[in-house]
Amino acid sequence: MALALSRRAVLRPMSHFNGLRTLTTSTPPSSSSSSTSTPESPGPDSSTAELLHPPRNTHYKITLRRSAISLGDKIKGTLLALGIHRRFQTVYFPHSPEVAGKILRVKELVEVENVPTHAVMTSTQQRQARKAIRGYKVVGTRRNKFLNI
């Protein structure tokens, strides 16, 4: 059975390409197999469960890399619809066809990554991650400099 492919470019989440899912044709299940499969329950060692089933990428991480100063109003409007106002600003959106279409409109200007839910950061969290650690750290003293220590 041949699969028909669309000519339109479609931006799909990376979870569709991770090798765990493959395109197959629908075939009826064979009744000759007597074994029944049960879904694996998470055991006491959750780290092996994470290795077997990594978290699914559910959001786009969109970062503006190139400026849109000399481009048309439609491109600028698309960036505003995505919530991007300045270069190197990062926004997160859940996977959806609407967001994928907006990304395709400005694909030359942005960098897109697929990230899981736990990696999504709010603007406040991004600001806190950029801040320097408060206080001072003594690297050396003048006295040590003159004593050649």
TrEMBL record:
SUPFAM superfamilies on file = Ribosomal protein L30p/L7e
Bias class Low complexity marks the residues at: 22-48
Q: Entry's InterPro entries?
A: Ribo_uL30_ferredoxin-like_sf (IPR036919), Ribosomal_uL30_bac-type (IPR005996), Ribosomal_uL30_ferredoxin-like (IPR016082)
Keyword Oxidoreductase included in the entry's annotation? no
One molecular function GO term is:
structural constituent of ribosome
Q: Which Gene3D superfamilies match?
A: Ribosomal protein L30, ferredoxin-like fold domain
Q: Which residues form the Large ribosomal subunit protein uL30-like ferredoxin-like fold domain?
A: 60-110
From its record, what is one biological process in GO terms? translation
Q: Gene Ontology terms, cellular component aspect?
A: large ribosomal subunit
Identify the stretch(es) annotated as Disordered: 16-56
One Pfam family of this chain: Ribosomal_L30
What's the domain of life for this entry?
Eukaryota
Listed A to Z, the keywords are: Ribonucleoprotein, Ribosomal protein
Family assignment from sequence similarity: Belongs to the universal ribosomal protein uL30 family.
Q: What is this protein called?
A: Large ribosomal subunit protein uL30m
User: What is the source species?
Assistant: Hebeloma cylindrosporum
